[in-house]
Design goal:
Blueprint lengths: L2 E6 L14 E2 L2 E2 H10 L6 E7 L5 H9 L3 E5 L4 H11 L4 E6 L7 H13 L6 E3 L13 E4 H10 L3 H5 L3 H5 L6 E3 L16 H14 L8 H10 L1 H6 L4
Parallel strand pairs: 1-4, 1-6, 4-5, 7-9
Antiparallel strand pairs: 2-3, 6-8, 7-8
Helix pairs in contact: 3-5
Length: 238
């Protein structure tokens, strides 16, 4: 099965415009996300799916710098953009992540793909978002492309198309779904970048853990936060 990671991004974020290109240590945040996605061993390809608006040309240009495939589609119909990207790159299995998560652990994504493949004869969709135990910023959804096709046919409300999987999350009984849970409940943490405070927290973690040519994972972050309660509080859901 051809397994494609599709990571959504856009320049015009409402709360923190241009966040995917904000500097993080030695390059834009998007560069770190791409590095982490390329480190996923179980995937065959990485694609960044962005809107086809002129404002996102700069994101497309940076994707070329980072040598990652780009697909451009509707800004508002993100579900449609995902399905079109999956078809364009002949994906049979789609791994959905977001580009506002610069601390994604490739090992978490690899494990999600492995679990999905082990159950693919009886499961269409597997994720760690049905029941939150992982920190936000470690979210991953793995699905057969047929799930996107079904949602595309049935999702007729704006919120079901502005995001990718609300229809499935609202109607899980229509799909064969499976959960991927962490060993402990770390759902109190938010490691995504939606606000200036989120970015400041991520920058502090990177200053402490990042080394060029190496990649820290979720456990290293958790160890750091356990040793620094003040920093841990900054990384909790507000």
């Amino acid at each position: 099965m051809h397994k494609v990671i599709i990571a959504q991004a856009r320049f015009g974020s409402s709360r923190l415009p241009g966040k995917v290109l904000y500097p993080l240590i030695d390059r834009p945040m998007l560069g770190h996300v791409v590095d982490r996605l390329k480190a996923v061993q179980a995937a065959d390809r990485v694609v960044v799916a962005i809107p086809d608006k002129p404002a996102d040309d700069i994101v497309a240009d940076w994707c070329k710098v980072f040598a990652v495939d780009v697909f451009r589609g509707s800004e508002d119909d993100v579900l449609g953009r995902y399905l079109q990207a999956a078809r364009h790159f002949s994906a049979e299995v789609v791994i959905r992540v977001c580009c506002d998560a610069p601390m994604l652990d490739p090992a978490v994504i690899d494990r999600a793909i492995e679990l999905y493949l082990e159950q693919s004869n009886r499961v269409d969709y597997l994720s760690n978002v049905l029941v939150r135990t992982f920190p936000r910023g470690q979210s991953v959804e793995v699905m057969n492309v047929s799930v996107l096709e079904t949602m595309d046919r049935r999702a007729d409300k704006p919120n079901q198309r502005e995001h990718v999987t609300p229809y499935l999350l609202e109607h899980p009984n229509q799909f064969r779904v499976a959960e991927f849970r962490a060993e402990h409940d770390w759902s109190r943490y938010n490691w995504t970048v939606d606000t200036a405070d989120d970015l400041a927290f991520v920058r502090q973690v990177y200053r402490r853990l990042y080394r060029p040519g190496e990649m820290f994972g979720m456990q290293e972050i958790l160890n750091l936060l356990e040793a620094d309660p003040d920093l841990a509080r900054k990384g909790e859901l507000k």
